[in-house]
Amino acid sequence: MSNFEQFQFDFYQSNYTIDDQEEGCNSYGSDKNLCESRKSRAEKQPAAGAFVPSDMLLSPPSYTGQILQPACSPDTLSQLDYAEEPPLLEELGINFEHIWQKTLTVLNPMKPADGSIMNETDLTGPMVFCLALGATLLMAGKVHFGYVYGMSAIGCLAMHALLNLMSVSGVSHGCVASVLGYCLLPMVILSSSAVVFSLQGIPGTVLALFIIGWCSLSASKIFTSALAMEGQQLLIAYPCALLYGLFALLTVF
Questions:
Q1: pTM, two decimal places
Q2: Among the residues of 45-87, which ranges form H helices?
Q3: Is 234's pLDDT higher than 50?
Q4: Which residue ranges traverse the bilayer (predicted)?
């Protein structure tokens, strides 16, 4: 037991005293204060030969911005994005103003056609007029939806081939389908009149011939203005009259 106490005393025995610790702390604090005073003095006095702007000596710079706050509000950014994006209907290729202008051009064969508008591949109006023609034929007791779509497709392909042979610039399938579909509107008027009275007679034949001439004249006028084919309107009107004559036969008989 005595040996263990002697070992414990020897193990914890040291020459380091509390007075030495206080002196070390005081000396460390004095050295730290000395370094801080020298550092502050060096910051206050600029180095020799260094250029210091006068505005920095007069007043410190001021910052007016705020941290984590955008320059533009989210509402302003969303409004700018909406202003740059076109409307959804225009992205889908549906322009009601152009549809209305094309319809008025078809209804008035003597009105000059705008080639920039008529050269568009807009199929909204043609689909509506084809459905209207099939619906009016159905109201008259004639189920001819397949004939309407079949003759429309074959007629568009034939007119596309013919116009590419006659014109220099050429034409697309969409443009041909758009023009022929819009010019089907007078045929819808003929099929609507067939719901009210029978067209199998002299008055019905005269009305059918008038509608055929109306459709072919409107289509040939639009094709000549869109493809710059002046002087060839009668050549284009003849195949158009043959195509619309088939629709007239469906309506009359």
A1: 0.63
A2: 54-58, 74-84
A3: yes
A4: 147-167, 179-199, 205-223, 235-252
What burial letters (b/e) apply to 216-241, b meaning 16+ CB within 10 Å? bbbbbbbbbbbbebeeebeebbebbb
How far apart CA 184 and CA 181 sit, in angstroms, is 5
- Pair of tokens at residue 130: 């084809």
Residue scoring higher pLDDT (170 or 162): 162
Cβ within 8 Å of residue 113, ≥6 positions away: 105, 221, 222, 225, 226
**Helix residue ranges, H only, 45-184:** 54-58, 74-84, 88-91, 96-107, 115-118, 124-139, 145-166, 173-182
Q: How far apart are CA 148 and CA 220, in angstroms?
A: 21
Question: Which pair of tokens denotes residue 160?
Answer: 């596309």
Q: Would you say how long the chain is, in residues?
A: 253
Q: Which tokens in the block code for residue 25?
A: 């702390």
Q: Report, as an integer, the average pLDDT of 81-88.
A: 57
The answer, yes or no, to whether residue 141 has pLDDT greater than 60, is: yes
Contacts of 128 (CB under 8 A, 6+ apart): none
Let me know: does 228 contact 169? Beta carbons within 8 Å.
yes
Alpha carbons 198 and 182: distance in angstroms, whole number = 25
Query: What stretch of H or E contains 196?
Result: helix 185-196
Give the C-alpha separation, 7 to 235, whole Å: 128
- On the CB side of 12, CA atoms within 13 Å amount to 5
Question: Which structure tokens are listed for 244?
Answer: 């619309």
Q: What is the dihedral of CA 165, 169, 172, 178, to 10 degrees?
A: -100
